[in-house]
Amino acid sequence: MKKVYSDATQAVAGLLKDGMTIMAGGFGLCGIPDELIDAIQASGVKDLTVISNNAGIDNVGLGKLLQTRQIAKMISSYVGENKEFARQYLGGELAIEFNPQGTLAERIRAGGAGIPAFFTKTGVGTLIAEGKEVREFDGEDYVMERGLFADLAIVHAWKGDTEGNLVYRKTARNFNPMMATAAKVTVAQVEHLVQPGEIDGDAIHTPGIFVKRIIHVAIREKRIEQRTTRKRGEAAASSAAV
Question: Nearest 5°: phi and psi at 152?
Answer without folding.
Answer: -145, 135
